[in-house]
Amino acid sequence: MSLINIPEKVELPECANNVITNITEKPTQTIGTIINDILFMASHKLSFHADKIRLQQQLALEQFKKEIEIKIDQIPEANLSEPNIQLIGTAIDDSQYCLEHEELREMFANLIAASLNTTKSSKATPLLSMIIKRLTPFDTLILSTFSNCGTRPICQYNATNDKDSVTMQTNVYLEGISQANIYDIEKRAIAISVLEALGLVKINYLDHLTSKGLYEPFSLIKAYNDYAIRAKKIGVDRKIDVNKGYVELTPTGKQFMDICMPGQT
């Protein structure tokens, strides 16, 4: 079951509704005006209680505006399309608590720009905005490791003996690192689980990749020995078995990276 519920209606203040009316009634207006209107919507959705937070958010909002302007300016004029108000309204609403994170801010800017590009607009959907707001910067770092290859090795650490097997850690994912302790493994496992819950990746332990040496690093890291010590506490005869599997991008994951993380594909 999907964890993402798209609201039937995005509630916007009256000032934002006026902006939307202006955008839809003036399809020939300049891109600069469109950007100003978009950011006008954003500024009226944001509310802060401390001056320091307000200043930080204002700086992030100005950077957001610059990033959108740069990305839209790179679209060939022949490819510019009318704004998708549903997507822009959703993206502005979803971005309000994410703008201070550079990685997430750039994803929202990419999504908004893609919605104005006829070569990408069909893939730029409100669903992607809902996904971005549920990610952390660390989640996006893990997702970026799928660039250039949509399938990666993954494993489970099981404490086994002649009678049975006990799972010590699932979703052990090492792409991008050469060493890891238990904390690193657990943090990465959570990120992989989040990506799976959001429909960006699919995990399979019923099969595995066959490239030679691909799974050797899983038994060479520090965490492997740490889990082996934990396994001995369950039973002195237990050893760590590496249950091989793989994790791959789903069609939604590929769509997300193509639109929101184009520099990673």
Summarize the structure in words.
The chain has 265 residues and is an alpha+beta fold. Helices cover 48% and strands 12% of the residues. It is built from ten helices and four strands. It has a four-stranded antiparallel β-sheet. The two termini are 28 Å apart. 32% of the residues are buried. The model is unreliable at 1-10, 15-20 and 22-28 (pLDDT under 50).
Please outline the helices and strands:
Elements: H1 14-25, H2 31-43, H3 51-73, H4 85-95, H5 102-115, H6 126-132, H7 137-144, E1 151-160, E2 165-172, H8 182-197, E3 201-204, H9 222-234, E4 239-249, H10 251-260
Antiparallel strand pairs: 1-2, 1-4, 3-4
Based on CA atoms alone, the radius of gyration comes out at 22 Å
Shape: elongated
How many individual helices? 10
Mean pLDDT: 85
Query: Reading side by side through the largest sheet, how are the strands ordered?
Result: 2-1-4-3
What ranges have pLDDT less than 50 throughout 5 or more consecutive residues?
Answer: 1-10, 15-20, 22-28
| Strand portion | 5-15%
Please name the defining characteristics of this protein.
disordered N terminus, 4-stranded antiparallel beta sheet, alpha+beta, 265 residues, 10 helices
